[in-house]
């Protein structure tokens, strides 16, 4: 696919998401989700890579099945309950619950998450970044209309953080590792939505930035597995520090940038007297932090002599300058956000 076609399809992906955000009717919402889906499929498919084609087919089948459930639920909601527009919603409605389950399937939230790590494993870093960030924006915006402290949302929060934490423990593929990390962060986003949409939006923006920092580095160095991390990062202290700050920020270790949104969510849940959920979220966050620390420790301590051919070229390019800026924001972004909140 040439660059012009990619730009066109990316614009269609953005258009679909913006349609979902601005939709006031079920039809407009569904059309936005479908435009987003149909535009994203050609981006991830590749004639020269069988794995990409298989991943695009799996992604299409899962999303199409979820879209079918979503469409039929919306139709029954309009016919039986007269909810043509999205300004009068009753959560205790079976069709509404089916809509929520379909959206969870689109997001890859447990127990509908099995397709997500496998698709992530077989696509490029750039497409994986889009899937972990932008592709979640539309369904999450729709969920914000329904979400409350109902039992079903509490269960999705707990299961998502648990599966995301435990699933990443024994992974050797970095793309699968980030997929399970994304599932864990999805639980935190659900928790943010319970309290305030603004907090969720802040979490989403910071999560997108942290993912970009890490994926940008992996994309430049063409790293896909843990053994490559241990070998390539051996020759460069700067790359080791970049890996450390990016991963610990994504894990939510204070005082890095990733701790700020989690700290705000913990405070918000405390105001709602959800202390047990707070404790569970913190414990699962510590599990994710454990496997990030394990990777960083191995990269710092192990001394491999092979595969050390990327980092020299890295220093003599603009990538070095970009990574310095990312590291600065990852290390000091927490204090910047706290100061901004103080003056708001």
3D shape: globular
Strand content: under 5%
What is the C-alpha radius of gyration, as a whole number of Å?
20 Å
Q: Cα distance, first to last residue?
A: 46 Å
Please mark out the parts with pLDDT under 50 across 5 or more consecutive residues, or reply none. Answer: 304-316
How many strands in all?
Answer: 0
Descriptive account of the structure:
77% of the residues lie in helices and 0% in strands. The protein is an all-alpha fold. The protein folds into two domains: 1-109; 147-344, no CATH class. Helix 9 (174-195) runs antiparallel to helix 10 (197-221). It is globular and about 65 Å long. The termini are far apart. Residues 304-316 have low confidence and may be disordered.
Throw out a few tags for this protein.
344 residues; mainly alpha; 2 domains; 16 helices; Complex_I_Subunit_2; respiratory chain; membrane
How are the SSEs placed, and which strands pair?
Elements: H1 3-22, H2 26-44, H3 50-81, H4 94-107, H5 115-121, H6 125-132, H7 134-143, H8 151-167, H9 174-195, H10 197-221, H11 226-232, H12 237-251, H13 259-271, H14 275-301, H15 311-315, H16 319-343
Helix pairs in contact: 1-2, 1-7, 2-3, 2-7, 3-4, 3-5, 4-7, 5-9, 6-10, 8-9, 8-14, 9-10, 9-13, 9-14, 10-12, 10-13, 10-16, 11-14, 12-14, 12-16
Quick structural summary:
This protein is mainly alpha-helical.
């Amino acid at each position: 696919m040439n660059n012009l076609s990619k730009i066109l399809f990316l614009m269609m992906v953005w258009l679909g998401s913006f349609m979902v955000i601005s939709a006031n009717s079920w039809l407009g919402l569904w059309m936005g989700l479908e435009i987003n889906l149909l535009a994203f499929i050609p981006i991830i498919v590749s004639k020269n890579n069988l794995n990409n084609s298989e991943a695009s087919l799996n992604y299409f089948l899962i999303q199409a099945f979820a879209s079918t459930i979503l469409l039929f639920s919306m139709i029954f909601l309009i016919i039986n309950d007269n909810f043509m527009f999205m300004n009068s919603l009753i959560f205790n409605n079976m069709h509404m619950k089916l809509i929520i389950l379909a959206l969870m399937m689109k997001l890859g939230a447990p127990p509908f998450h099995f397709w997500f790590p496998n698709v992530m494993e077989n696509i490029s870093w750039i497409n994986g970044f889009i899937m972990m960030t932008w592709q979640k924006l539309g369904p999450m915006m729709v969920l914000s209309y329904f979400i409350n402290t109902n039992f079903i949302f509490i269960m999705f929060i707990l299961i998502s953080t648990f599966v995301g934490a435990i699933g990443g423990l024994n992974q050797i593929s970095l793309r699968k590792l980030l997929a399970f990390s994304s599932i864990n962060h999805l639980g935190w986003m659900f928790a943010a939505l319970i309290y305030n949409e603004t907090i969720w939006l802040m979490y989403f923006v910071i999560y997108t930035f942290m993912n970009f920092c890490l994926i940008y580095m992996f994309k430049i160095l063409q790293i896909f597995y843990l053994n490559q991390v241990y070998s390539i990062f051996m020759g460069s202290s700067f790359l080791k520090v970049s890996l450390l700050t990016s991963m610990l920020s994504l894990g939510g270790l204070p005082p890095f940038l990733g701790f700020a949104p989690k700290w705000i969510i913990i405070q918000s849940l405390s105001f709602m007297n959800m202390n047990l959920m707070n404790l569970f979220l913190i414990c699962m966050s510590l599990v994710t932090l454990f496997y990030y620390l394990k990777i960083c420790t191995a990269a710092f301590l192990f001394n491999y002599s092979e595969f050390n051919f990327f980092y020299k070229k890295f220093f003599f390019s603009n990538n070095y300058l970009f990574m310095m800026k990312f590291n600065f924001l990852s290390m000091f972004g927490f204090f910047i956000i706290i100061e901004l909140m103080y003056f708001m």
